[in-house]
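Hi there. Long-time user, first ticket. I'm pasting a complex I've been working with (about 319 residues overall). I'd like to know whether the download I got is complete or cut off, because the file seemed smaller than I expected. Thanks.
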Amino acid sequence: MNRSVTVRVPAKVNVQLAVGGLRPDGFHDLANVFLAVGLYDEVTATPAEELRITVSGPDAGQVPLDRTNLAARAAELLAARHGIAPDVHLHIAKDIPVAGGMAGGSADGAGALLACDALWGTGASRAELLDICAELGSDVPFSLVGGAALGRGRGELLTPLDVGATFHWVFAVADGGLSTPAVYRECDRLRAVEGHGAGVDQVPAPEPSPALLDALADGDLTTLASALTTGGMPTAPGGGSSNDLQAAAVSLRPSLADTLAAGTKAGALASLVSGSGPTCAFLTRDEQAARAVAEGLLASGTCRTARVATSPAAGATLL
Ligand code: C5P
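Hi, the file is complete. Here it is re-exported in full:
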């Protein structure tokens, strides 16, 4: 019998990404408010002679098929812990922008882990799965749990958050990705240029914004929109943002300032870079407004494509 298991995993947007100092281990302490959004990858695990990855979807060519793919690493880590061989074919149906700041690679890691656990009957506990996720990457635990959560540490220590409404978003997908380590390095460089230094002793400990958490819990669109554009330097290209990586992403890709401005002009309530970018996220009033903002962004010529999605979304789910 050649049975297979499919898992659906959401993308994320960081409604707040407060970045602390550079730690001795090369990571930054974060106060990371994750929100899962309804753009999904699907990972299907099928028994095979050896570990193999295939990818479908418009951007499949940009996804690595070797052991650097987090889906492959997830299968290897789970198999090693249970003393079995990671002989599985993992097929990724990719719909989340690649290297876009929406945790697409992390989604595939979490999805492969859950799919392999079900296929192999390893029966890993939730705690073990979360542990493997944290080993795979800072954003992977959130891809597993979904919904909304505050991530502390390097983003892997999660506390679930309440969300009081469905929010409507547009995501402007850029041509080409940005490297997450490069964006963090640029953030450190900008801090050094500003004269503050970038180390843990020089940057204030990152804290979640109480106004933003209340807005999420109350489902208060207006307060959430203003919290998303508070922080950083309002005069920086791209404007003020709850995302401390925004200035760095715009510095590396100055055209993102035009994308952000185009979304605002098209009627978005708030415009910000998603995570390390280059995808830009636009909060809108409702579904109709989201469609209008997406059309305005496409017409502006400042992005490759524009996607409409709602949040929160469920975490990795067996189909
Ligand atoms: O954990 P992950 O593999 O996703 O991290 C990729 C890179 O992003 C790290 O090697 C580091 O350069 C940067 N990073 C960071 N601080 C974090 C998370 C990621 O500096 N909290």
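A couple of notes from our side: The first helix runs from residue 70 to 81. The chain has a mean pLDDT of 96.
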